[in-house]
Amino acid sequence: MEGITRAPKVSDALIPLIFLIVLLVLNIRVFGTDGLSGSNQIVLILSATVAALVAIFRLGFNWETLQDGIVKSISSAMSSILILFLIGALAGTWMLSGVVPAMIYYGLQVLNPTIFLVAACFVSAVVSVATGSSWTTVATVGVALLGIGKALGFDEGIIAGSIISGAYFGDKMSPLSDTTNLAPAMAGTDLFTHIRHMAKTTVPSIIIALLMFIVIGFNYETNGSVNDVKAISEVILEKFNVSGWLFLVPIIVLTMIIKQVPAIPALLAGALLGGVFALIFQPEIISTIAAEDASYAYQSFKAVMMSMYGEISIVTSNDVVNELLITGGMAGMLNTIWLIVCAMVFGGIMEESGMLRVLAEAIIRKVHRVGSLIASTAATCMFFNITTSDQYLAILVPGRMYADVYRKRGLKPENLSRTLEDSATVTSVLVPWNTCGATQASVLGVATLTYAPYCFFNIISPIMTILFGYLKIGINYYEKEEELA
To answer: Which parts of the sequence belong to the Na+/H+ antiporter NhaC-like C-terminal domain (predicted)?
Structure first.
């Protein structure tokens, strides 16, 4: 059978996809938001098994070829996996050192419930534009903002939604963002033309999202009170040595990223700096975590190592504060990494066998007008986010597929690059088994399906780009359309 393969039909490709969707729906009904603990992973492995059976027995592929596709797919996610491990370590040392508690403390002094949601979205957007990374933004200021919001009495889902909305706006618009560079490269345009064109849909989307957060903020009945906020602040002061000097750690990390230091060394530096600052500012916390009567050097080594690799919890007299002062370290990321690997297995088989391509091509054949072309592009990107579980593949594959179609229709490449970002980049975080959705759920400790309804910017963006396509607003054409028709 080796070497004798046939191109898949749409019916072949639909078999594993329908199996995946049916099993995920059943899984969500049974396990709800606990799916990340293992059941989602099993669903993806079973779906990958079905895809492999179709590829081998119906299409003529051999296992070695499919395995190469799996390895290639998992390899593409390795940088994300390493970043996840380092985010876990960073979260641990920043908790131990008092960086996150200090952010929460000072945030409680300046933010009130009325403006909190819009402020959280705005702050996340500014930091993300400066760093070019939604992941870094969520893992640093996002974690602190979540703690502040919970202390103010907001539901964790809506807090996470406001943080993620802002973070993904910045991720889209920053020239430092990898996806913002990848999309124009796939479409065939330059970076700043892409950003200027993307602003036509992105700015209205974020304005609508901010207005929604303002309205919710003015009408939201929080279960927190001024006395609760005061009590939380006092407990943090009692437990930690809160100082403005602690902000040097996030400032250094953000500066490194703005200076285009790669994410992995920047996050590693941030984790190590957190450990150093813990030794300087939090000797009592170090002693408590180490839980041994030994020299301070011994206690320091043990406590810092524990915070980087495993779960630590700092117990206070306040139950709300106790919930804020728990971190899982690198080990806390293992469920997410497990999910990513399983998703990459499914995506690798579907990609290698050509089943993803044939599904996308079936959509293209139905496209005849500008509006439907843009809508189809957006739908294809979201489809790849669901099936390949990776936002980069959701940009790369549709970008390659549609580039020639846009050119032949007389549309400049920035139309394609904008649509790729408006749909692929922002919706990746709404899919529980996508690398982005799984990561943000793990970092924030909020299930994807819990925060997804409140990610207003991420929901509005693809709708906005489709609406602009049908109304032909902000569409750039070649000057001589007739030559390309």
So the answer is: 166-472
Maximum pairwise Cα distance, the chain = 82
| Between 311 and 180, residue with greater pLDDT | 311
Cα separation of 127 and 461, whole Å? 20
The answer to whether 205 touches 464, Cβ cutoff 8 Å, is yes
Write the CA distances from 269 to 90, 100, 272, 390, integer angstroms: 9, 16, 5, 26
Q: How far apart are CA 28 and CA 40, in angstroms?
A: 9
Q: Which has the closest alpha carbon to 280: 224, 241, 252? A: 241
C-alpha pair distances (Å), 18 with each of 12, 169, 332, 444:
11, 32, 31, 31
Q: Look at residue 262 and tell me whether its pLDDT is greater than 70.
A: yes
What pLDDT digit, counting tens, does each position of 319-340 carry? 777 877 888 889 988 877 887 7
Mean pLDDT of 288-312: 92
* Both structure tokens of 473: 């607003």
Q: Cβ neighbours of residue 407 under 8 Å, at least 6 residues apart?
A: 413, 484
- The yes-or-no verdict on residue 1 having pLDDT over 50 is no
Asked if residues 476 and 411 have their Cβ atoms less than 8 Å apart, the reply is: yes
Extract the tokens encoding 146.
């979540």
